[in-house]
Amino acid sequence: MSPRPRWRQPGSTPAQLATARQVASLLLGYPDEELLGRLPLLRAATAPLPAPLAGPLGRFLDHLETTPLPELQAAYVETFDLRRRCSLYLTYYAHGDTRKRGMALLQFKHLYARAGLQLTDGELPDHLAVVLEFTATGDASRGERLLTEHRAGLELIRLALEERGSPWAPVLQAVSATLPPVEAADRAAIARLAREGPPTEEVGLDPYGSDAFAPPEYMPTPGQSAGAVR
């Protein structure tokens, strides 16, 4: 029996999905002058994409082009670093601040290493921008599997951004559009996660800290934003 082909957005080629994910990866990093300098390149890359991908990404590029950088940076920190429900660290939604999360982070890191992707200091392996970069430029099959395994968290981020009217909501909409439609089991997991929140540490065991998004060895160095993924 021949292997089942991977699902893809109708009308999208694998190259187009990779482009959309690469662009989304850049747009979900901490905004800086380098990102603004890439605007023409990002517009040129997104223009040929199918409407479900080009439309949302284009809306955020419009916002990026018309918003002062200090305002973008302040909004990024307020949205992604100070609000847990908008956190871009995928394993947080699956494991909360528990010891299981530390093991999940190591699995991400080992998967990247086997594919030849080396993280720089301060980059957390489960940050959505990093996962998207891996999926776009490293191993699409394994990257899509990671995104699918963490679909509940991914969709909860999207819903939280949409509820807030965040300018980053269209970026998450584009990411979701690169994946298969949400199935009933995923919808149930999303509803449960929204209702109950991420898991908590078992009684008698201390988590990594009420304000931590990752075990200490994965935390950024002092003075660096936890969401500052380049």
What's the layout of helices and strands?
Blueprint: H1 14-27, H2 33-37, H3 39-46, H4 51-66, H5 69-81, H6 90-95, H7 99-114, H8 128-137, H9 140-149, H10 151-164, H11 169-177, H12 184-196
Helix pairs in contact: 1-4, 1-8, 1-11, 3-4, 4-11, 8-9, 10-11, 10-12
Work out the helix count: 12
CATH class: Mainly Alpha
The whole-number mean of residue pLDDT values reads 83
Which regions are unreliable across 5 or more consecutive residues at pLDDT < 50?
1-5, 202-230
Radius of gyration: 17 Å
Instruction: Please give the largest β-sheet.
Output: none
Count up the domains.
1
List keywords for this structure.
230 residues; mainly alpha; disordered C terminus; single chain; 12 helices
Structural account:
- With 230 residues, the protein is mainly alpha-helical.
- It has a single domain, classed as Orthogonal Bundle (TorD-like).
- The protein is built from 12 helices and no strands.
- It has helices at 14-27, 33-37, 39-46, 51-66, 69-81, 90-95, 99-114, 128-137, 140-149, 151-164, 169-177, 184-196.
Question: Summarize this, please?
Answer:
The protein is mainly alpha-helical. 37% of the residues are buried.
